[in-house]
């Protein structure tokens, strides 16, 4: 699936929930399903700066596609980074760089997060796009 298909699928998944409590539960469940992050990425060099919680992101390029590994010490933040893993892992660096990050705003997530978490969401997206640029 390309990015457009992935974001459409995510927006469709989120649209079935009637209230934000259910949407948060969905996001948290995504975080719980993240594969265990390799220890080599659980180091300060892989921490995203500017997040209230600790968030680690590691990337590798395999066969021209970026694999994204991530984790957090906060359930909701782990779910937020899991959104990006779902959207971007397995795409090429060029596809990630070209992705319209604003599409995620269509689900209303930023408006329903505390300002620190909304800022963290933007920081996570920027970090992944920087990694993609470095691997292009």
Can you walk through the features of this model?
It is a single chain. This protein has 136 residues and is mainly alpha-helical. 49% of the residues lie in helices and 12% in strands. It has helices at residues 3-15, 20-32, 75-88, 93-98, 115-135; strands at 55-62, 65-72. Strands 1-2 form a two-stranded antiparallel sheet. α2 packs across α3. The longest helix is centred in the C-terminal third of the chain and has 21 residues, at 115-135. The mean pLDDT is 92.
What would the keywords be for this entry?
about 140 residues; mainly alpha; about 50% helix; single chain; 5 helices
Quick summary:
This protein has 136 residues and is mainly α. Helix content is 49%, strand content 12%.
User: Alpha-carbon distance between the termini?
Assistant: 19 Å
In total, the number of strands is 2
Cα radius of gyration in angstroms: 14 Å
**What is the element string, with H for helices and E for strands?**
HHEEHHH
Unreliably modeled segments: none
Quaternary assembly: single chain
Calculate the mean pLDDT score and round it.
Answer: 92
* Helix percentage range: 40-55%
Rough outline = globular
Structural class: mainly alpha
Strands in their spatial order, largest beta sheet: 1-2
| Count of DSSP H/I helices | 5
Largest sheet geometry: 2 strands, antiparallel
Q: Proportion of β residues? A: 5-15%
